[in-house]
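Hey, can you fold this one?
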Amino acid sequence: MSNAHFPSLEAYLQDGPLDVDGALDDGGGASFSLKGRELEATVLFADVAGFTRRTADLGPVETLAFVNNYVCWVTHEALRGRP
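Sure. Predicted structure:
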């Protein structure tokens, strides 16, 4: 796989061969497609201390801004000093 940047998940999936390409039964007789690619990735789970208290009086937009600001800060700290 290349180090290319993709504008969407769909573009990424269409870039190369799929590792998973099939259909599954939903248990009720209908089928749904299942497509995907295996990749090596890192997943961040972050428990923001006091999140409920900090965001209790915020609306959806302000909460989104709070979370996005946190993720930007974490990303900046993680990448600091890397080329």
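The longest strand covers residues 20-25. Let me know if you want another pass with a different chain boundary.
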